[in-house]
Amino acid sequence: MKFWRKLRALITISAGTLMVFTVIQAFPIWRYLPVMDPRNPPVRYEVQWSSAEADTLMHTICYTCHSNETEYPLYLRFAPASWIAAQHVNEGRAHLNFSEQPLDTLNPDLLIAMIRADLMPPHIYRLAHPEANLTAAQKEILIRSIRDTFVRATVLAAATDAPCGPEVVLASSQRQPDSPPHCRESRGNPAPVPSQTTGS
Known about the structure:
The chain is an all-alpha fold and 200 residues long. The chain has a domain at 35-170. The protein contains six helices and two strands, in the order αβαααααβ. The longest helix is centred in the C-terminal third of the chain and has 25 residues, at 136-160.
């Protein structure tokens, strides 16, 4: 009798857990807590990094939490894990978002300092993403690309009297029909310079 009671209890608990898990998949929690929205907003700016290798590194270690191009692994696509992951991503975007902020509003020295200090990518991110553990050579490639990309964008922007250089391209879906591809449209006051970054 004890065996069957335990078995029934186990089946009841398992069925209840499965039911709750199924229901929360369809629950749009972000309507009430926007910070947990797992969807990617439109990409407004596309940064053209100075080398293909640097572009790959940036997308591997930074764009998960600092762009609108986040790709969640399969195990993070189901609630409640997806809610927690989305919260971390959206908090990272709030500090730094390469898809929303043009380069002339960002501080490259801050980004470089955090990479040199081994603060970016964060340790907790590297535990789940071993590919984000940078070698010394990869760090230097990334730092050199950040410096070169920011300097080139600033110089070309000043030379063309445009709001940005060709290193920042307004995403085609957001570009005004008559605006040249190397210029971003004015958005009024520039975005604030981030004081810190989270995520990677």
